[in-house]
Here is the input.
Amino acid sequence: MTLASDASRSDPVRLVLCGAGHWGPNIIRALLDDRRVRLAAIVETDPARRQALESRYGVCTSADLEPHLRDPAIDAVIVSTPAASHASLATAALTHGKHVLVEKPMAATHREAEDLCRHAARAQRILMVGHVFLFNNAFREMKRRLEATDFGRLLYLYARRLNLGPVRADVHAGWDLASHDVSMFLAIKKTLPVTVTASGQCMIRNGIPDVIFANLFFPDGTCGHIHASWLDPQKIRDVVAVGERRMIVFDDMSLQAPLRVYNHGFDRLAADDATAIVDTFGEFRVQLKQGELVVPPTATGQPLAAELDEFVSALIAGRPVESDGRFGADVVAVLEAIDRSLAEDSRAVAVAS
Ligand SMILES: NC(=O)c1ccc[n+]([C@@H]2O[C@H](COP(=O)([O-])OP(=O)(O)OC[C@H]3O[C@@H](n4cnc5c(N)ncnc54)[C@H](O)[C@@H]3O)[C@@H](O)[C@H]2O)c1
Here is the structure.
């Protein structure tokens, strides 16, 4: 895709936010802090919410996106409505020549996500997906360390995203919570899993799993496990990468130590390695190593502000974005495979590419 650079522009980037429920106000606050941006309008279908937003933020609101799409002064639309409406709203914005940042999950089906990528390519507009953890400094540092040669081979990944609620009615816990972990696993592995298996339970509402256990099997043999739940009273949000030489824990609930590196691992010993002193049969082929625990410093900064900065900067510079439509479509492909496995008694399901 070729995007025209707008680096010389002196006027602000004019944005419309579509949908401002629970998450929208976070976006509004970050946008109001960015001098390069003018939040031209908030489109919200709930009249009471419109009134509250207008008096709180002093931004004009409306119920209909269409007039803003026809306004040539609007550069871009941020879609933060429930997932079922993402594809239609984002398509409308792209076909009117607007750049789009759409919240995760990008669309309700993989086909819709692929169509959105095609619309963006045809319109030569930026299509970015709000996978906010890709802009989290602790996660970025974790990824950098996983890519460093001294990490050794990555053996497996697991993630837990547990809390009591908030319970969504439109999507299940996989699409709501596990979408974050799928995005991080894909960013780490830089490839799609070949197959997925999943099991889950519907405790609150029929047909909407509130607890999910998913396994992602990557081409090189790495396995990624995700436990997502709306029913756990203890809030846990972590992503763990276990390697031959180190383990890295990204604990999003910890302010003091969001990243911990355990320099523990094992060495494989050749059967004829005369220098190896082993005491038990279990240690004969593998020698365990207990190293130090390191808490690396991580830069402060709001991930959502960094995500929005990426969108606005790319729009001005005419460059591609991190977390683009292609990446978002891959996340949706994995979520769809999780759905199929859930519906088919945890059968291993191939991931569409
Ligand atoms: N990145 C994150 O960490 C994160 C966190 C929370 C939510 N989200 C995502 O943000 C999106 C919104 O989530 P939420 O929790 O704010 O949902 P929500 O239901 O609280 O809010 C959605 C809002 O959109 C409005 N709306 C619905 N259809 C509309 C339309 N056609 N035009 C204008 N407004 C419309 C609703 O009235 C509501 O106020 C979801 O896709 C969700 O997955 C992302």
